[in-house]
Write a structure and sequence with these properties.
The complex is a heterodimer of chains A (329) and B (343). With 329 residues, chain A is α/β, with parallel strands linked by helices. Chain A has 10 helices and 12 strands. Helices cover 30% and strands 22% of the residues of chain A. In chain A, the strands form 2 sheets. Chain A has an 8-stranded mixed sheet, with helices on both faces. In chain A, a hairpin with a 2-residue loop joins β4 and β5. The longest helix of chain A is centred in the middle third of the chain and has 18 residues. The two termini of chain A are 25 Å apart. Chain B has 343 residues and is an alpha/beta fold. An 8-stranded mixed sheet of chain B has the order 6-7-8-3-9-10-12-11, with helices on both faces. In chain B, α5 packs across α6. Chain B is globular, with a radius of gyration of 21 Å. Classes of the chains: A alpha/beta (329), B alpha/beta (343). At the A-B interface, α6, α7, α8 and α10 of A face α6, α7 and α8 of B.
């Protein structure tokens, strides 16, 4: 399967220094993260705020420099790419969509300007065809009639339309990979599904590999094929999304699934254990499982040995001494 | 103010209503650019119940909360209706009366706990401040009470000496909830209390509110865009669209028997976490600009049941504002389609 990967992430690590002076604490924001993005596949990356999921997306977009590990694209390690030409090429293939469709568009420029720019910078089509391509792209993301929309300014559009403009802009360069960082969380509820359906269609029609970063498990289930669950900088579970959500292995995934509001069952039926506030386990973590302080299944070994990702079922891996023990050597 | 003088829709008045909002109108700005963020809203909260108020951003739900708290600021102003707390209109009360009303009768928890707490003041001192502003209590006793309140929301009482930045987002939100409880109000307004938090913390906090409500017996006005959350935590739900209430019912009935096309669309906008997956459509279009709302039913431009072919109905939908009417006990809907079916 790795031969088919569009983007391959190997042991990716990012640490941020914390505080000054002699203490030298570090947040292990991303720690030993490995996965791959395949063409025509949406991979969801879920976790709580501070789990490192956005940092992963930003590392892949080459917005942060990795502390360690590799990101392989077309056989080259992107974390080592330095020249402007190579960065430009990479960015034309790997595009990012941000959470805030207000902040990511220039308020004094028209929609046409936003979509023309990447077409011209990356010389996607001859200048004579730019206008026609802008209209094609707008139509492709459901913004019609494109002639009218192209002349508008961001403030004249609704939140959902603005997010569609961001998507059209990302698609202008014909990317192979799209990194979508919480693309619907700031949109009105009734228009979120439309954006998810659009991602689904682009995946199917254009074979784009999507990374869908979200904290919303239900939307991940709706749109994604595979899931990566992050906790305190590490991937604690990964696999085909239906299987992971219906039979989660890691206690954190189980907690997440149980916490999602479920209209079909009343509060009483699904009470979860309360936690009384612990500092982030991603700060100077040391040895041991990072989830142990909150884990109902923790045993002695959990505080001594950091669990590795183990695959007890085909394609379905978890980082847990109890539910996914390492096979004996 | 023409549309205001319609007959009252259906009598909401109940002897047991703790809070009653009657035909409330709140406008922002003046002249041609003015917008009615809340346009003739009736709402009643009974003692000890959790009323969920759901709707999308800009539908006016937070404006209602601010009106109930009497903390609206210009250019927003109340231009019609009344707000009764325990049967007495709070509009037109003096500043001193309102000072007592806030916190002692009604308190409010906002979305961002960080902006509700003073970053350079210890948590305990903020409790003391709030309590001393409203009752005669010495510092030592107030601080001890702060510790008790923190324990009620599952935080170690020694944290009275912590600064807000030393607490996690979930803990800060719980501190604010504890503070809202400090004067034992009859009503607590939660305005998107968990939107900035992740699902696990969200559930922890709502469970806590649920337990506290049973001990203290306060009522809750729970405002959120997340209807799925309300189906689980609220007793009754009011659905708001473009400044109006379009449907109210018991939470179970909203979930199992939604009548308004907007409510139906909203419920179909949340994919399920378990069970079969079907393709969802959401709701086409976007909420209207309230400075120029559509004529007739405000939802008609997005409504799947508004079709020019059905001439008589279409005419009503596009020219006449539907009123709330009862479809079953305790279940009201403002929709021409539902009204027609009933006739």
């Amino acid at each position: 399967m790795s031969s088919a990967a569009q983007l391959e992430v190997r042991s990716l690590t990012k640490r941020f220094p914390l505080g000054g002076g002699m203490r030298r604490s570090q947040i292990h924001a991303v720690d030993d993260v490995s996965f791959e993005l395949r063409p025509g596949t949406i991979t969801a990356l879920v976790g709580e705020s501070g789990s490192g999921k956005s940092t992963v997306a930003r590392l892949l977009a080459h917005l942060y420099e990795a502390t360690g590990g590799a990101v392989l694209f077309e056989g080259r390690d992107v974390t080592r790419v330095r020249s402007r030409r190579d960065v430009l090429h990479y960015r034309s293939q790997v595009q990012m969509i941000f959470q805030d469709p207000f902040g990511s568009l220039n308020p004094v420029k028209t929609v046409r300007h936003h979509i023309e720019r990447p077409l011209r910078i990356h010389r996607v089509v001859p200048s004579g065809q730019v206008e026609a391509r802008v209209h094609d792209l707008l139509r492709n993301v459901g913004l019609v009639p494109p002639e009218d929309i192209a002349a508008k300014y961001p403030h004249e559009l609704s939140g959902g339309q603005r997010q569609r403009v961001s998507i059209a802009r990302a698609l202008a360069v014909e990317p192979r990979v799209v990194l979508a960082d919480e693309p619907i969380s700031m949109l009105d509820v009734s228009i979120r599904i439309g954006i998810l359906n659009l991602m689904q269609r682009l995946k199917e029609e254009q074979g784009i590999a999507f990374l869908y970063v979200t904290h919303d498990l239900a939307s991940a289930r709706y749109v994604a094929d595979d899931i990566l669950v992050m906790y305190a900088g590490q991937i604690v579970e990964r696999g085909p999304i239906e299987q992971v959500l219906s039979e989660p292995l890691h206690p954190y995934t189980r907690l997440l699934v149980a916490a999602v509001p479920d209209p079909t069952s009343k509060t009483e039926a699904k009470r979860i254990e309360l936690r009384t506030g612990t500092p982030s386990p991603a700060v100077d973590p040391g040895e041991g499982c990072r989830f142990r302080a909150r884990c109902p299944l923790a045993i002695d070994v959990c505080s001594q040995v950091t669990p590795q990702l183990v695959e007890p079922r085909p394609q379905h891996a978890a980082r847990c001494h109890v539910t996914a023990p390492a096979p004996p050597d | 103010m023409t549309s205001l003088v319609e007959e009252p829709p259906v009598a909401h008045a109940r002897e047991t209503s703790l809070l009653e909002v009657r035909k409330l109108v709140v406008e922002y700005g003046t002249g041609p650019k003015s917008a009615r963020a809340v346009d003739g809203v009736d709402l009643a909260i009974r003692e000890g119940e959790v009323l969920g108020l759901a709707g999308e951003s800009g539908c006016g739900k937070t404006t209602i909360a601010n009106a109930v708290m009497q903390i609206l600021r210009p250019p927003a102003r109340i231009t019609g209706g009344s707000i009764l707390f325990e049967g007495e209109n709070i509009l037109g009360r003096s500043a001193e009366q309102l000072r007592r009303y806030r916190w002692q009768n009604v308190s409010m928890v906002l979305q961002s706990a960080m902006s509700a707490l003073n970053p350079v003041m210890r948590v305990g001192d903020q409790f003391v401040d709030a309590m001393q502003a409203h009752e005669k209590i010495d510092h030592r006793r107030a601080l001890a009470r702060a510790g008790e309140l923190l324990e009620l929301v599952g935080i170690d009482r020694r944290r009275v000496s912590a600064y807000p930045h030393q607490l996690s987002g979930g803990m800060r939100q719980r501190v604010v909830i504890a503070m809202a409880l400090s004067l034992e109000p009859e009503l607590i307004i939660l305005d998107e209390p968990t939107t900035a938090l992740d699902v696990v913390v969200q559930r922890e906090i709502l469970q806590q509110v649920d337990a506290l409500k049973r001990d203290f017996g306060f009522a809750v006005l729970f405002i959120t865009h997340d209807v799925s959350l309300l189906l689980e935590f609220a007793d009754r739900i009011a659905i708001m669209y473009a400044g109006e209430i379009v449907e109210t019912a018991h939470a179970d009935r909203i979930g199992t028997n939604p009548q308004h096309p907007y409510t139906q669309g909203l419920l179909k906008s949340f994919p399920p976490i378990r069970g079969p997956l079907t393709r969802l459509t959401g709701i086409p279009g976007a909420p209207p600009d309230l400075s120029d709302p559509p004529a007739g039913c405000r939802f008609h431009p997005r409504c799947p049941h508004c079709l020019p072919e059905q001439q008589a109905l279409y005419l009503r939908q596009t020219t006449e504002r539907p009123r709330l009417r009862m479809v079953e006990p305790d279940h009201e809907v403002a929709c021409h389609l539902v009204a027609e079916a009933a006739e």
